[in-house]
Structures are given as structure tokens and as C-alpha cells.
Design goal:
By secondary structure, the chain is mostly helical. The protein is 51% helix and 9% strand. Strand 2, helix 4 and strand 3 form a beta-alpha-beta unit.
Length: 146
């Protein structure tokens, strides 16, 4: 599964950089795999983050960001993707609300933007969307250092 490979590949960087704050923004490719179970995806992701914080005591806060909406998908139809995305986001929020040093981060100004922030491919962000995404991540960092 893509997210497991991505997260595992970052372990060396985390060990060497020793960040105090980690922000995780996963794409939705894993939710486009036909047999993906969103409940398992959300549980494995939060479990991985908990383990990471135990193994790396220098990490003081982890943000897991909401998964983005997609207008176009591969492997499953858009409705299935959206249903899975909603389940994952709700589960992540519910779980992380109980954790002291972990936060579920919503990109409110990005997701609720009246402007078109999705590129023509229906998956990636436009230049404007990328700027809004950057600002949202910056706001998360500011929230963490308060």
C-alpha cells in the first residue's frame, strides 16, 4: 500500500532531522484501490503515528491532515472514493480528538474555497490551491508552537 511505503521511507529523515512537529498530508491514492477498507486505513495510520511518537521522543506534536476531495479517480468511482474519504476523515478526527499531542487538521480555507483550487486533472491543486495549502500548513505550525 502506498502510504505505508511513504511513511516508512520517511523514518530515516525523521531520525536525522529530529523534528519537533510533523505534518502528514497523504494523497488519496490508497482509497482508489478497489479492496481498500477505510476503517483499516485510518486505524493503521493513527497506529503508525503513535508508534512514531513513542520511538522518537523529540516529536512533540503530529498533525494528520484531512484527505482531499477528488473530482476524478482511478480504480473506483468518485462516489466510492468520497464515501471512503469521509469515513477516514471522521475516524481520524474522532481518534485524534482524544490524543493530547496529535491533531486532525482541516484545510478549511482550501476545502471551503469559492474559487477553483483543483487542477484540470481533478486530483492535484492549482497554483492558487497550492498557495492556500501552504497557508493552511503554516497555520498548523503556528498553532503547534503556541
Amino acid at each position: 500500500v502506498n502510504y505505508k511505503r511513504t511513511l516508512s521511507s520517511q523514518k530515516k529523515k525523521i531520525r536525522s532531522l529530529r523534528p519537533r512537529i510533523i505534518i502528514v498530508q497523504l494523497g488519496g491514492n490508497d482509497l482508489c484501490i478497489p479492496n481498500t477498507r477505510p476503517e483499516v486505513f485510518a486505524c493503521e495510520l493513527t497506529g503508525w503515528m503513535q508508534t512514531l511518537m513513542v520511538q522518537h521522543v523529540h516529536i512533540k506534536h503530529v498533525f494528520i491532515c484531512e484527505l482531499f476531495v477528488r473530482q476524478i479517480t482511478r480504480g473506483v468511482n468518485v462516489q466510492t472514493y468520497e464515501k471512503r474519504r469521509t469515513i477516514v476523515n471522521k475516524m481520524l478526527k474522532a481518534f485524534l480528538d482524544t490524543e493530547e499531542n496529535m491533531t486532525f487538521w482541516r484545510h478549511l480555507r482550501l476545502m471551503n474555497s469559492p474559487l477553483d483550487v483543483s487542477d484540470k486533472d481533478g486530483v492535484h491543486l492549482t497554483t492558487l490551491g497550492t498557495k492556500k495549502f501552504y497557508r493552511s500548513l503554516r497555520l498548523a505550525l503556528l498553532h503547534a508552537v503556541r
